[in-house]
Here is the input.
Amino acid sequence: MKALKINKSLWSLPLDFSFDSSEINELIKVMDIELQEVVISPNADMWYFLFMKEEFILVSDVDDGLDIRFFKKENEDLAKKFINKITSIVSFK
Here is the structure.
């Protein structure tokens, strides 16, 4: 899994699985993150949060699926760590 550059200042890592918004809200409750903001819209829901003191956005898009976005390329490993954490929580349930 390799990060894709979306624009000049935003990177994305697509997730190999998908959840609906209610499942993501439940996951976030048990994660060690600092939720900053949630934006719900007809086509895409977004959760802005801090993970290990870095900013990330979890995006659930109707057309593109689920991905995690970040502003610094050097945070790619942290994004992967977050994805692994989600995967372990989901597989534990």
About this structure: The helical segments are 21-30, 76-92. Residues 28 and 41 are 18 Å apart (CA to CA).
